[in-house]
Amino acid sequence: MIRWMIVIFLALVLISWMTPLLRRLGLGRLPGDLHFRLFGREWFIPLTSTIVLSLLASAIARWI
Which residue segment(s) compose the domain that 11 sits in? Predict the structure, then answer.
């Protein structure tokens, strides 16, 4: 259980670190990525970008 929590934490840190780079590449601005302001905060839900990145990761995993 603790291993999964560490893996999820590290994945979230890595994703938050790479967000500016991914936005420069165009991810995060695809149709289906949601941006909205609620309670004075800006929220970002990257649905389409997540699907694209998981398909890319799956293709790389199959290729290797």
Answer: 2-63
